[in-house]
């Protein structure tokens, strides 16, 4: 098991500094199992489904961050 958080502070979205994007914190986690040459994992991203703005050029062109998502993976070594 593992987890972590990512914090991004307030930042200016334009070179004219006329648009400030708010801060946000995203929590992520992972559960995995290894045996022999096989690893199975389930990743949880944005666990609390935090709404945030990832980037933007103007107030009309804002890029939202990704919502809560679950990603499963299986790795095999030969």
Helix-strand layout with pairing:
Layout: E1 2-8, E2 11-12, E3 20-21, E4 24-35, E5 38-45, E6 53-56, E7 62-64, E8 69-76
Antiparallel strand pairs: 1-4, 2-3, 4-5, 5-8, 6-7
Give a quick set of tags describing it.
mainly beta, 0% helix, 78 residues, 8 strands, four-stranded antiparallel beta sheet
Task: Provide an overview of this structure.
With 78 residues, the chain is mainly β. It is built from no helices and eight strands. It has strands spanning 2-8, 11-12, 20-21, 24-35, 38-45, 53-56, 62-64, 69-76. It has a four-stranded antiparallel β-sheet, with no helix packed on it. Strands 2-3 form a two-stranded antiparallel sheet. The mean pLDDT is 93.
Tell me the major beta sheet. Answer: 4 strands, antiparallel
Quaternary assembly: single chain
Are there runs of 5+ residues with pLDDT below 50, and where? Answer: none
- Sketch the topology as an H/E string, one letter per element: EEEEEEEE
- Percent range of helical residues: under 10%
End-to-end C-alpha gap: 24 Å
Number of separate helices: 0
* Cα Rg: 17 Å
């Amino acid at each position: 098991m593992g987890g972590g958080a990512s914090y991004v502070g307030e930042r200016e979205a334009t070179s004219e500094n006329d648009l400030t994007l708010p801060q946000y914190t995203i929590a992520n986690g992972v559960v995995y199992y290894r045996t022999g040459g096989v690893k199975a994992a389930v990743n949880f991203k944005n666990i609390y489904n935090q709404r945030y703005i990832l980037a933007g050029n103007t107030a009309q062109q804002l890029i939202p961050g990704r919502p809560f998502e679950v990603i499963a993976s299986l790795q095999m070594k030969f």
